[in-house]
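Continuing the series of single-chain predictions for the mutant panel. This is the parent chain; the variants come on the following pages.
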Amino acid sequence: MDQKRRLTRAQRDQMAANRARGKIIASLKNFFDAGIEISGDTIFFAESTFGIYGEELINVLGARDSEEKEVLLGLIFFPDKALRITIESLVGDLIFSGADEVCLIERLHAHVKSATLVLPRDNGSMTIEVTRPLLTAFIKKLYLCRNLDTEILKALENNLPEHVANEARVLLRCKYYEYPGKERQFLCAFINKAAHMQNSFNELFELAGALVSHVPGHLEIENYFIEQLHLQKKIARNIKEFEQKRDQYGMEYLLMQKYPVPHESEEEVNHRMHMLTTIIEDVFQMRPSCNSYIGHRDLGHFHSEDDIETLFKRFS
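Parent structure:
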């Protein structure tokens, strides 16, 4: 009797998995049937890399095979964020094997033979054959065979609305960082404590997840985050100094002197500082010790008979 019940449960699970896979195939088919709008990033790449402008892009995509066509199709046939979130909502607890992925590609290819590519602002469109290699590359970019950490997924499911949790799942699937032991515990705690910040949750989650995956073994996670905040403050100061010197001496002179040129804007660094501060102070309510700010310097001792000038000298 127990064996029959187990078999029946296994059959039910298999039926549920088959239904989920069927919904995934239907969703992907709808995506291709609706047409694929060529993104602004792809158009910029075509212009800046290959010198292909406007409707000429349609001509290149419709012509014979070429290096340019192959590269551009690889950029165009790339799952966007909205599709990834939709598919993630259907995946649920499903675990995809390589064989499952091959089966998905075969079933989808039976329904999808072509797709319409559309330039933005009604600047032209064309229908292109969706070959098996093109479809295979597209499906593989969904990373369905990556097994996500079940403990982190459970924390997302228990603490966040479905649409926020699914976006976080997409981040985990695309980045695919590893979170052993204390790193997993830290992220689960982050999810629990930051769940009320729904509007900014996934931006904070992406930063926290990236940093946690790179914590050196000899450091505590909290100290590493504080170090990163200090690093961003230093980068912000360097950017200000660079801009001042550029205004004073000119860019050409700085390049001749091999002065380090920032690769980020002050706005980007300030935004990262703000997110780190939010994680450190608002989410985990950590208060960096004075030692972390003053570099463990020996400041001596203050006596009542010392004047203010002497005190300032000791802190300078």
